[in-house]
């Protein structure tokens, strides 16, 4: 049973047991598993040698400073021996399902974040292991035995600290932050390692003299509100090791999208319209498979200088079929002309999703 904090004389808050699992260089590790000749080599999944972007990098590639979302050409300049591998999403999804099955042996309360990452609430666990640390250890060992892949795990009493813990000593790590450790650990944490503090916010915080969790904790809530608006309360709480967000099982899909990067930039409508067609097919097929419809269609264009724009159209009723999706998408493309410069990437997405099927449409919740 969950154990309370403090005296048993009165009802007290429950200490959650949260695990954050993060697969180590997941896409790259899957490719190295599939092709032993890639093991020990710097590899990048995604893009091509000169075009596109890096989706994932092996740890050997990361040693050269290569990171996800980096332009492929930049990655190539950083590492002349970098091997580019095309992504295989169906394979990644299948392996992710195997990993999910391991989680389900321990708890039904699973919040996927991505194919390679999830939060688990193991306050009560199905194997009746005495501690969350033992649960995490068993999960890591089982994943390795069944898939040959390595997972890092963070164990703590809330989601924020579990996420921090999983990243603390990666790769191939299990790290625990206990309730007694939490507040002090956060005070020493570099501000850039706070989940929810991206590069722009990190730079702003440093300009304000906030370099560590201790610096953040020293700021009043009023000061943080003035600087960071609605995010202030989150920063104020986590600086004290407080995060009351529950692990939310069955997170709903917010959108379905597909995009492609071109071998050569183009500003021709006909060429862009042609390249949009397979993306429309993919998005519509996925929506049908997931038994969802959508009321919003969004077109994305990324230009040769990496600037990007989106154009969206929201409807009063769901998009009825693939023909309607194509018409709306092409209309959005026409509305984007004349183009500011040539295009290197195009994408289309459906959002404002609704479940379909025997019960008719039902608006999906947008769980945080």
TrEMBL record:
Keywords: Cytoplasm, DNA damage, DNA repair, DNA replication, DNA-binding, DNA-directed DNA polymerase, Magnesium, Metal-binding, Mutator protein, Nucleotidyltransferase, Transferase. Its cofactor is Mg(2+). It is found in: Cytoplasm. Binds 2 magnesium ions per subunit. It catalyses: DNA(n) + a 2'-deoxyribonucleoside 5'-triphosphate = DNA(n+1) + diphosphate. It comes from the Bacteria. The keyword Ion transport does not apply. The record marks 27 as: Substrate discrimination. SUPFAM superfamilies: DNA/RNA polymerases (SSF56672), Lesion bypass DNA polymerase (Y-family), little finger domain (SSF100879). Its EC number is 2.7.7.7. Mg(2+) binds at residues 22, 116. The active site is at residue 117. Belongs to the DNA polymerase type-Y family. Poorly processive, error-prone DNA polymerase involved in untargeted mutagenesis. Copies undamaged DNA at stalled replication forks, which arise in vivo from mismatched or misaligned primer ends. These misaligned primers can be extended by PolIV. Exhibits no 3'-5' exonuclease (proofreading) activity. May be involved in translesional synthesis, in conjunction with the beta clamp from PolIII. Monomer. This is DNA polymerase IV. It comes from Methylobacterium isbiliense. The lineage of its organism: Bacteria, Pseudomonadati, Pseudomonadota, Alphaproteobacteria, Hyphomicrobiales.
């Amino acid at each position: 049973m969950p154990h309370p904090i403090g005296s048993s004389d009165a009802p007290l808050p429950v200490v959650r047991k949260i695990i954050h699992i993060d697969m180590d260089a997941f896409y790259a590790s899957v490719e190295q598993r599939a092709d032993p000749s890639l093991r020990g080599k710097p590899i990048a999944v995604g893009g091509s040698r000169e075009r596109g972007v890096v989706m994932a990098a092996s740890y050997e590639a990361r040693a050269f400073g290569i990171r996800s979302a980096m332009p492929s050409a930049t990655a190539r300049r950083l590492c002349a021996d970098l091997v580019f591998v095309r992504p295989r999403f169906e394979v990644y999804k299948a392996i992710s399902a195997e990993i999910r099955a391991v989680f389900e042996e321990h708890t039904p309360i699973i919040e996927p974040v991505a194919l390679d990452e999830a939060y688990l609430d193991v306050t009560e666990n199905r194997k009746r292991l005495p501690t969350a640390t033992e649960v995490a250890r068993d999960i890591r060992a089982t994943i390795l035995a069944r898939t040959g892949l390595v997972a890092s795990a963070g164990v703590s009493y809330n989601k924020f600290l579990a996420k921090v813990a999983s990243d603390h000593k990666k790769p191939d790590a299990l790290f625990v932050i206990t309730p007694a450790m939490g507040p002090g650990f956060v005070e020493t944490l570099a501000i850039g390692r706070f989940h929810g503090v991206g590069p722009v916010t990190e730079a702003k915080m440093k300009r304000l003299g906030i370099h560590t969790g201790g610096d953040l904790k020293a700021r009043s809530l009023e000061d943080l509100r003035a600087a960071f608006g609605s995010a202030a309360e989150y920063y104020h709480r986590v600086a004290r090791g407080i995060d009351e967000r529950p692990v939310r099982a069955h997170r709903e899909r917010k959108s379905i999208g597909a995009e492609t990067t071109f071998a050569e930039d183009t500003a021709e409508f006909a060429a862009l319209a042609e390249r949009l067609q397979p993306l429309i097919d993919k998005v519509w097929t996925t929506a049908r498979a997931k038994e969802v419809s959508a009321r919003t269609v969004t077109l994305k264009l990324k230009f040769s200088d990496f600037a990007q724009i989106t154009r969206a159209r929201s409807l009063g009723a769901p998009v009825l079929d693939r023909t309607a999706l194509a018409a709306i998408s092409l209309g959005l493309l026409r509305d984007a002309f004349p183009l500011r410069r040539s295009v290197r990437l195009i994408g289309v997405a459906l959002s404002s999703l609704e479940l379909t099927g025997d019960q008719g449409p039902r608006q999906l919740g947008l769980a945080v």
